[in-house]
Amino acid sequence: MTTPKRNQFVVRQAQSEADLVACSALDHTYSTEYVWQVDLREEGDETAVRFRVVRLPRMIRVAYPRDRDALLRSWKARDCFLVATVEDVILGYVNMRVDPVFPRGWIHDLVVDQRVRRRRIGSALLEQALRWARLHGLRHIALDMQTKNYPASCFARSHGFAFYGFNDHYYPNQDIALFFGRPV
After folding, report:
1. What is the widest separation between alpha-carbon atoms in the chain?
2. Cα 87 to chain center, whole Å?
């Protein structure tokens, strides 16, 4: 894979089935030393939920919560699917669906290949997804991530997203999803 220098990549619409296959071949895994830990307490008629960031005893490598076949099926129904490329090699992608009830975009996937992370590719993909959302009259963007995906939660907060909820057993692997959102 060609390694891009700063700002030498292009963000464009996914154009073909080959783009989708190339996106599925990216390394979706991530590593982390931190997780969001959930503390749920029920006392009588009161339920208290608390999240806190905890450091793990060692770095862990985490698999993406959606498998390749599920990704390919969901991408067929895409509304906004953008890819970052350099010399026709796909480096990352963002997949956003439009909520049919509310004027909101829902980012289901924002992935940059493991080998080219921390080069503003994810930021450029997110910026273009926000631009697309504005052009299509959306007023809010939401995204989800595993509680183990501390790097993604830091990324989201650094781009103006705020935590606004969770769903237990959300992913096929039964992981908890954290939800973040922001105005467009």
Report:
1. 61
2. 24
CA distances to 28, 34, 50, 130, 138 from 177, rounded to whole Å, are: 17, 15, 14, 22, 23
Q: How far is CA 128 from CA 13, 91, 125, 140, 144, in A?
A: 10, 15, 5, 14, 18
Residue 76 near residue 21, CB atoms below 8 Å: no
2 found inside a domain: no
- What residue type is 55 in one-letter code? R
User: The domain spanning residue 177 has which CATH number?
Assistant: 3.40.630.30
Query: What's the confidence (pLDDT) of residue 4?
Result: 54
**How many residues in total does the chain contain?**
184
Averaged pLDDT, 62-82: 82
1 belongs to a structural domain: no
Shortest CA distance to 155 belongs to which of 92, 83, 104? 92
Bridge partner residues of 49 (DSSP): 40
Domain count, the chain: 1
Q: Of 100, 74, 80, 81, give the one whose Cα is nearest residue 19.
A: 81
- pTM of the predicted model as reported, rounded to 2 decimal places: 0.89
Tell how far CA 184 is from the center of its chain.
16
